[in-house]
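Exercise 7. Given the encoded structure of a 161-residue chain, write a plausible sequence.
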């Protein structure tokens, strides 16, 4: 069984004079990410075999916050190809994940994450907000052959009290 966890990067700053890839997260984004990570730790007690992140600054910063709360000793692997807005590119990349990993967390971007959630999960969402989290479970032991899975959990920051 494979478990795919997607977390969209935190809300980013727009006041910086940098290209899209180098925008950092805002204070609001940091607060919401801490809220989601704390919820994950306290309510779900999840374990991840491998954590990947887009190499975009806002995704890296989001992964650092989550990792510090959940798994301070676990490394996050930065992947250039995960800086994508295409669910097709993301889907292709996921199918190449090493099968030794059962539970994989990826930090990345919309619209790829919303579209991929709708393609691979059994619940339809309109938009995965910043710092949003999705858990999709597949009744399959090979990433290459994952098909429609079961959406186990969708976490939206504003719904966490």
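Solution.
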């Amino acid at each position: 069984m494979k478990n795919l966890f997607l977390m969209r990067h935190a809300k980013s700053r727009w006041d910086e004079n940098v290209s899209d890839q180098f925008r950092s997260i805002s204070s609001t984004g940091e607060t919401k990410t801490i809220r989601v990570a704390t919820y994950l730790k306290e309510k779900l007690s999840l374990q991840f075999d491998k954590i990947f992140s887009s190499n975009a600054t806002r995704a890296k910063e989001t992964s650092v916050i989550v990792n510090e709360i959940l798994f301070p000793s676990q490394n996050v692997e930065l992947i250039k190809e995960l800086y994508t807005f295409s669910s097709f590119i993301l889907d292709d990349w996921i199918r190449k994940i090493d099968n030794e990993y059962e539970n994989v967390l990826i930090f990345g971007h919309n619209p790829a994450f919303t579209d991929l959630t709708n393609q691979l999960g059994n619940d339809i969402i309109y938009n995965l907000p910043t710092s949003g989290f999705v858990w999709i479970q597949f009744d399959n032991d090979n990433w290459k052959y994952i098909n429609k899975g079961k959406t186990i959990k969708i976490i939206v920051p504003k719904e966490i009290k």
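Remark. The chain has one domain: 2-159. Students should compare their own answers with the one above.
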